[in-house]
Amino acid sequence: MKTELIPEGIYDITHYRRAHEQLRALKELGIPARRRHDNTVCVLRMHTMAPTANLAAPGPTLKSSGK
Question: Roughly how many angstroms between the first and final C-alpha of the chain, as a whole number?
C-alpha cells in the first residue's frame, strides 16, 4: 500500500491544482505536507486518516490553577 496520497487525492481535499494553494489549504486544515523538487505536493496518508492527532497535546496543568 502506498503511503502517500496521489495528486487526485490532494485535489479532492483542497480543491486546488497549484502546489502553493494546496500547501496553504492543507496547512489551514492542520495536515502536514511538503513540496517536492518537481513542484508537487507530498502528503502522507496517515496524516489524512486522523488529522486531529497531529495537533499538539495540551501542556501539563498546575495544581494551583485549579483554585
Answer: 51
H or E element in which residue 44 lies: none
**CA proximity to 14, closest of 30, 38, 3:** 30
From the centroid of its chain, how far is CA 31? Answer: 1
* Total-model pTM: 0.69
Segment 16-53, tens digit of pLDDT: 999 999 999 999 999 999 999 999 999 999 888 865 55
Residue spans of the domains in the chain: they are: 7-54
| Distance separating alpha carbons of residues 65 and 3, to the nearest angstrom | 43
Contact 54, 45 (CB under 8 A): no
